[in-house]
């Protein structure tokens, strides 16, 4: 899939990961009302993966390469089990918006770990400036969220542990994303996604077994709101948005793709306000505006970059103008 021939797909894919994954944090909180965290993760990943691979096998695609399964297993376990699965665990003790904010350090981890593209990242001064401004906005947003929240029902040490786990989930996500970008499997993007989801689902269920999450759990006791959250996670979070994300990694720099972690908290807060009646205070709004400025700066060069042909035409035009406009010399 060529990004030049399908340039319209890029903004659509960005919208998917910006909006859908923002709502996903809220959907996870709904799912946790009836599912333990790793059973929730395993169910959403495995269901989505089986749906996709069933459709692909029916179309005649093959899935018999052990090398491809291995590459996709590493990617899936790091990004999905380690990244998203730990988010589900963390959301037991922090709100959806706090979880979205906590993992928004992703772009910084991308730049720190992705040494191959350091020259690109630091050659464009707007990218590091935008990331720094975005991080400042996240701090302001987090301060506004914490100051207005009441967490008397949750032990303070558990909340601190949750934030640490969420930070680790961000690192796992970055490692998996960079591995996927540097070690692509030789199959269609759809098949790669399906295999990643399946292996992540199996790994999540194994973790759930070690954590004894199956003891006392019954599907019959899951409320309708939790099922609604799971359905959203399966079809939109695990298929539409994740497919968009993996494709964007193949056509855009990883640090730019990771700016979704700056937009997701905004969407999470707005979705929480509209769906769950959560409020937004002035400090949060101020932080959100700073975050938006940071994201704009990380992409400003891309928005206003001219082609080489356009630059040549502009230089020629300037020369013509300089020749035609001569200083006035009195006779």
TrEMBL record:
It is a multi-pass membrane protein. Residues 18-141, 163-299 form the EamA domain. It comes from the Bacteria. The chain crosses the membrane at residues 12-32, 38-57, 69-89, 95-114, 126-146, 158-178, 190-210, 230-250, 262-280, 286-306. The keyword Phosphoprotein does not apply. One of its GO terms (cellular component) is membrane. The keyword Transmembrane applies. It holds the Pfam family EamA. Keywords: Membrane, Transmembrane, Transmembrane helix. It is found in: Membrane. Belongs to the EamA transporter family. This is Permease of the drug/metabolite transporter (DMT) superfamily. It comes from Chryseobacterium shigense.
């Amino acid at each position: 899939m060529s990004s030049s021939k399908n340039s319209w797909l890029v903004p659509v894919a960005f919208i998917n990961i910006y909006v859908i994954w923002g709502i996903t944090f809220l959907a996870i909180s709904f799912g946790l009302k009836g599912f333990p965290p790793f059973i929730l993760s395993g169910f959403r990943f495995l269901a989505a993966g089986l749906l996709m691979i069933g459709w692909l096998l029916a179309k005649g695609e093959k899935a018999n390469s052990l090398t491809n399964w291995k590459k996709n297993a590493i990617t899936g376990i790091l990004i999905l089990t380690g990244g998203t699965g730990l988010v589900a665990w963390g959301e037991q003790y922090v709100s959806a918006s706090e979880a979205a904010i906590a993992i928004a350090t992703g772009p910084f981890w991308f730049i720190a770990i992705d040494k191959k593209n350091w020259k690109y990242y630091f050659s464009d001064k707007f990218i590091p400036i935008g990331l720094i401004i975005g991080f400042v906005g996240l701090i302001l947003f987090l301060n506004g969220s914490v100051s207005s929240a009441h967490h008397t029902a949750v032990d303070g040490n558990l909340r601190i542990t949750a934030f640490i786990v969420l930070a680790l989930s961000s690192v796992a996500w970055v490692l998996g994303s960079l591995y996927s970008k540097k070690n692509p499997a030789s199959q269609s993007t759809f098949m790669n996604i399906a295999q990643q989801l399946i292996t992540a689902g199996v790994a999540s269920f194994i973790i759930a077994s070690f954590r004894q999450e199956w003891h006392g759990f019954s599907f019959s006791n899951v409320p309708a709101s939790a099922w609604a959250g799971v359905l959203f996670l399966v079809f939109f979070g695990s298929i539409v948005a994740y497919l968009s994300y993996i494709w964007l990694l193949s056509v855009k720099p990883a640090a730019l793709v990771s700016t979704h972690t700056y937009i997701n908290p905004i969407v999470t807060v707005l979705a929480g306000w509209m769906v769950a009646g959560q409020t937004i205070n002035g400090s949060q709004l101020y932080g959100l505006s700073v975050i938006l400025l940071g994201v704009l700066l990380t992409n400003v060069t891309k928005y206003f970059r001219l082609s080489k042909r356009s630059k040549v035409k502009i230089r020629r035009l300037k020369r013509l103008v300089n020749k035609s406009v001569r200083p006035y010399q009195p006779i």
